Amino acid sequence: MRGNDLTGKRFGKLTVLEPTQQCVRNAVVWRCRCECGNEILVESRRLKPGVIFSCGCEPSAYDGVKDLTGYHFGKLHVKGRSGNKAKDGNPLWLCQCECGKEIETTKRRLITGGVRSCGCGKRPPLKDWVGKRFGMLTVLSYVEKEKGFHVWHCQCDCGNTVDVRQSNLQSGWTTSCGYQRNPANHMHYVDGTCVEKLQTDTMYKTNTSGVRGVYYNKKRNKWIAQIMFKKKCYNLGGYKTLEEAAQIRAIAEGKIFGDFLQWYEIEYQKKRRKKQRNNSFLYVRKRVVPFLYNMGISC
Length: 299
Prior knowledge:
Oligomer: single chain
Low-confidence stretches: none
Radius of gyration: 31 Å
Number of strands: 17
Helix content: 10-25%
Structural class: alpha+beta
Shape: extended
Mean pLDDT: 76
Number of helices: 5
Order of helices and strands: EEEEEEEEHEEEEHHEEHEEEH
């Protein structure tokens, strides 16, 4: 069963009894009982506050309402239609929040509870990071929540200021304003594989086994070993002990990564020598030849 277990929850006059074997567009269909005694089948996407109220014995308070002017939804007071339309073509309604800010939204989002304020009701991030340092960045102030991410205004040691997502600060992905170096200039990729990442033993924070490419599968009750190479994931099998899985992973890593790194080192040295020869040729052509020509010496 996908999604959350809705058994026992109430939506208006409906109480969810159990899930059925039916699915409508990948959504589970639930058996619900109304207060009037009738039972109906409702898909999970409709079991939301404001979307469905009863089996049909009691209509929605907004059924047949075409003009929402004057209605209140949470902190929003509907002033009327704004004259604009959403991407799906539905008209937008102009609403004024209790804080004084005005926003535009659709009738469906208002009725279903998708929006209840201009955003001022959202609580600030749980952590107060003002003054905290992350690499070369010092957090100055909180900006806003943008696309689901908290954004902080930071100052780099070089003097520049930049807005950074909280998740990037936490993970260490962003440690400066970007002036220090461009990661693209220091990372080398071959067929989607980063050479530098193969040469490091750094593990993701989500790793719980302590071994790269090994995790525990509760359903199979085994340690699963796998290896990622050139955008493909190779399954190395399941093992009873962590030591066995780690050993298999080490063998595969030495074979695949070792041969690849050895090949890359040879090819990289060839490209490096070729680049040095080209740079030397350009230097002679642009600097030495004109100098000799000015001195009256022919090449």
